[in-house]
Design brief:
Chain A has one domain: Response regulator (Rossmann fold), CATH 3.40.50.2300. In chain A, 44% of the residues lie in helices and 21% in strands. Chain A is built from five helices and five strands. A five-stranded parallel β-sheet of chain A has the order 2-1-3-4-5, with helices on both faces. In chain A, β4, α4 and β5 form a beta-alpha-beta unit. The longest helix of chain A is centred in the C-terminal third of the chain and has 15 residues. Chain B folds into two domains: 114 residues; 136 residues, 2-Layer Sandwich (Beta-Lactamase). Chain B has a six-stranded antiparallel β-sheet, with helices on both faces. The model of chain B has no long low-confidence stretch (mean pLDDT 86). Chain B is α+β, with helices and mostly antiparallel strands and 274 residues long. Chain B is rod-shaped. Chain B is built from five helices and six strands. The chains are: A alpha/beta (126), B alpha+beta (274). The interface between A and B is medium-sized, with 19 and 24 residues.
Chain lengths: 126, 274
């Protein structure tokens, strides 16, 4: 998993810290963080990422809009996107998947689930 | 004439003798043939006996080999079972370690975040995040003891109309009892129960030995049916650390947000330490 770069877009510091904590357990993974969709887009325009993990409910620009913009960007058309949704918010999940997200993780999140999903998608990239 | 008779008699005698010799030779030859036949038969018997003897030996050898292989097979099967059991143990242990890791991550991050700010609004937001994102709570309230020390007043109401949450007198009802006893309440309510008066979870907020408020959890997120071990640990953490964070933020607010250490503070600490 070395040399893979993952972007975490999450407005909640608690959640962001938990997600980064989980991702750091994947050896060699490089992790960048953004507070919202706009911050995420800035990161995406300045660096190349192999996987994007984004919350849906965020201020300024939510995760659904971010997924939509990512899929319309030729540079990120094929990059795996994982959305984090509130448990039971099936509409959000279906909408995110229809926009092109590859996977979803529901809250309250489990670190093992994050690791499994990210590893699985990055294996596909490799 | 007599000589002829003598000669004839001698010839007859020799012939008789020859016949006798020939007869004994024939008998000897017959004896030899019989002996030969007997020996051949005996030899054949011995050969057959030897062959039969080798077969028995081979069977015994093969039986012994089969027993040895059977024994080895049982040992291998036994070892395979041991390895399978070890693998199962490793899987179980891995799952346990993952769960422990997840628990520790949750606790560490919650604790870290709760003590990362002195701003009361930020502290409240962090408590909301912990309850929503880490536990999976949809509706909750935080009630704090008011200045009279007789009533718990709503400080935060999440997922409900704030007007639905009233003040509670200390010692009254499930919430008032938890404040008085300091014992966390975690139970499955009856379908007809008034959840606002008797929330499924009531967490006392303790600063030292003093209970200064409660967190009431009314409803979990959809699909989250039960609490996990992590949730209970998070409740314990919130009971101690959220209370301390709120209390510290309240002191900070009352001091005008200035972390100023007075002379009396230094004097007191110096006196206690030295």
């Amino acid at each position: 998993m070395s040399n893979y770069k993952v972007l975490v877009v999450e407005d909640s510091p608690t959640m962001r810290q938990l997600i980064v904590f989980a991702l750091k357990r994947i050896r060699g993974l490089q992790i960048a963080e953004a507070n919202d969709g706009v911050g995420g887009l800035k990161k995406l325009s300045s660096e190349k990422f192999d996987l994007i993990l984004t919350d849906i409910n965020m201020p300024i620009m939510d995760g659904l809009k971010l997924v939509s913009l990512i899929r319309n960007d030729p540079n990120y058309k094929e990059v795996p996107v994982v959305v984090i949704t509130t448990e039971g918010a099936q509409e959000d999940r279906e909408r995110a998947l229809s926009l092109g997200a590859n996977e979803y993780i529901t809250k309250p999140i489990q670190t093992a689930k994050i690791i499994d999903v990210v590893r699985s998608l990055l294996d596909g990239v490799g | 004439m007599a000589a002829d008779q003598d000669e004839t008699s001698g010839t007859t005698q020799r012939a008789e003798e020859f016949l006798q010799v020939f007869k004994r030779g024939a008998e000897f030859t017959q004896d030899l043939l019989r002996e030969n036949e007997r020996l051949r038969f005996q030899l054949l018997e011995m050969e057959q006996g030897n062959v039969a003897g080798d077969g028995v030996g081979n069977v015994e050898h093969l039986k012994s080999r089969i027993d040895m292989l059977e024994s080895e097979k049982q040992e291998i099967l036994s070892r395979i079972q041991e390895v399978q059991q070890e693998n199962q143990d490793y899987d179980n242990r891995y799952s346990e370690i993952e769960a422990e890791n997840n628990l520790l991550a949750n606790l560490y991050i919650s604790s870290y975040q709760l003590h990362s700010s002195l701003d009361i609004t930020e502290i409240i937001r962090i408590i909301q995040e912990i309850l929503l994102n880490l536990v999976g709570v949809e509706q909750f309230s935080i009630l704090m003891l008011d200045a009279t020390q007789q009533y718990l007043r709503p400080l935060v109401v999440e997922g409900l109309d704030p007007s639905m949450i009233a003040s509670v007198r200390v010692g009254e009802g499930a919430i008032g009892q938890v404040l008085k006893s300091g014992e966390r309440r975690l139970h499955t309510p009856e379908p007809s129960a008034d959840l606002l008066a008797e929330p499924p979870v009531i967490i006392p907020l303790a600063v030292g030995d003093d209970i200064i408020g409660v967190i009431n959890i009314y409803k979990l997120l959809q699909q989250k049916e039960t609490f996990s071990d992590i949730d209970e640990e998070l409740f314990n953490l919130l009971g101690a650390h959220a209370a301390m964070a709120i209390f510290t933020a309240m002191l900070h607010l009352e001091r005008g947000g200035q972390p100023v250490f007075s002379d009396s503070f230094f004097a007191r600490v110096t006196e206690d330490l030295y």
